[in-house]
Each structure stands twice: as C-alpha cells, then as structure tokens.
Amino acid sequence: MRLLRSSTRLSLVSLASASIALGVSACGSKTPEPAKPSAPAPVVAEAPATKTAPAGETPPAVVAAPAVNDPAVVPTVEPPAVVDAPPVAADSGLPGLWAPLFVVGHESTWEVKVHLKTLDIDRDPSEPSVYKEEDKGGDLTCRVASVEQLENKFQKSTVTCEGFDDTGTGDSPAGIWMTDGTRVWIPSEGDLPDQLTLPAEPAPKKWQLGEGEEVEIVYEIKAGEDAGAWCFSAGYQMGDGGVSEVCFSKDKGPYLYKILTGSAVQDITVTMRVK
What we know:
Layout: H1 2-28, E1 107-119, E2 131-149, E3 155-163, E4 175-179, E5 183-186, E6 195-199, E7 205-209, E8 216-223, E9 230-238, E10 240-249, E11 253-262, E12 266-274
Antiparallel strand pairs: 1-2, 1-12, 2-3, 3-4, 4-5, 5-6, 7-8, 8-9, 9-10, 10-11, 11-12
C-alpha cells in the first residue's frame, strides 16, 4: 500500500512536471519563419578535354601567355614618319675642279679672316713709324644663283654672296664665272686679260705678263696645300704690290682664297676658307 502511494505520488509528480514543461513550451514558443530558398550552386565549367597525342608523337609544348607587365614583352612602336630629303642639285656634267661652280643652287659657307696693319699717320713725324693692327672676320655664304647656256658651249655662272664681306680688297667668290668645258675664268672688262684661268686638268705652269720697274704680273698654276687641290695665283707689282691666290678642290670648287695687298700706309691679309 505504501508502495502504491509512492508510485502514485511519483506518477502525479511526473505528470505535473510534464504539464508544467508543456505549458512553458507552449507559451514561450514563436511561429517559425518559412525557410529561405537556397542559392543555386555555381556552375563549374568543365575543362576542355585534353587531347592525347597519338602513340609515338611528342605532345606540343604548352606556352604560357605573357604577363601584362612582363618586361620581356616588347611593345609595338610605330616607325617615325618619313620626311622627304631636300632636293640635291644635279651634277653640272663638267670636268675640272671648278665644276660645282656651274651647278645651280650649289652653296658654300666661308670663314673669313682679315688682318689689317695700318700706319698711324697722326703720329709725330719725328717719331718712328707706328702701326695699328686689327683682326676681324665672319661667315660669308655664297650660292650659284643661275647658269646660262651660251653659244659655242660657253656657260656663264652668276654667284651671289651674303654675310661678312668687309675684307678691304673686294675679293670673294661673288661675280661672273665662265667656262667652255676645258677651262674656267673670270671675264675682265675692257682690254684686260681674263683673270684666274684654270684648265680642267691642271699642271704646274708659270708665266709673266708685262715686265718693268713699275708693272710686273706673274701668273702661276700650282698644287695646293690640300690633297688633290690646285691653285691659281697672280702676283703683281704696280707701285703697290700684292698676291692673290684661289684654290680649287673636286667636291667644293673654289674653297680657299689668300689675298695680300700692301701700300705705303696699310697692309691687308685676307684668308677665306670653306667650312
């Protein structure tokens, strides 16, 4: 009987505990939220099937693509635009070291140096002579402005120059040059002989025009100081003296002037050379 009571009591306690538990669960529970749909699984792209090389053959090597900033990758550079070169003057077709003189447009730049030695005429006559010395110079640019075809195969070239021309002697390449294909010369006015006659094939030669105490002119063709150059010189003595020399080279035509004039009051030395 005691046993039955104990069992009944245990059963009632168990039921009461279960009821309490159920009551708490019912009161404290919330309405469950609907389940969210699951995100679709990403599609994994299948790698291309690897081709198997036929038996006996070596499979081709796989070359990896270069990285974007790989220094071994040389960028493509566009070639620079082609600029047309200026037209080159045609050859005159003439023989001789002076042929460039007869090519229209042929241009040369000369370095001109002048040395003056001048007597001081304001000095006291009882004092020894005193000379003032001065050096000056500059660049002179000369160009063949025109070439005329004349009768009997004669050609006339006109050379113009711009720049430093204060030489005191008036010598320069500017002026008229003549050729008949066998020689070149500067025509003279009046009855004076033509100046600066140089044949197409120069050879050493010396001749004299006029002889006397007051007048003496000596012309000479001689080899120049530079290889392959030939010079024409004229020395004169007509009260005052002087020497004028012009040298020619194959590619430049006249390229060197040397002038020396002397008088009682002034000596002038001029050197002109193509740069």
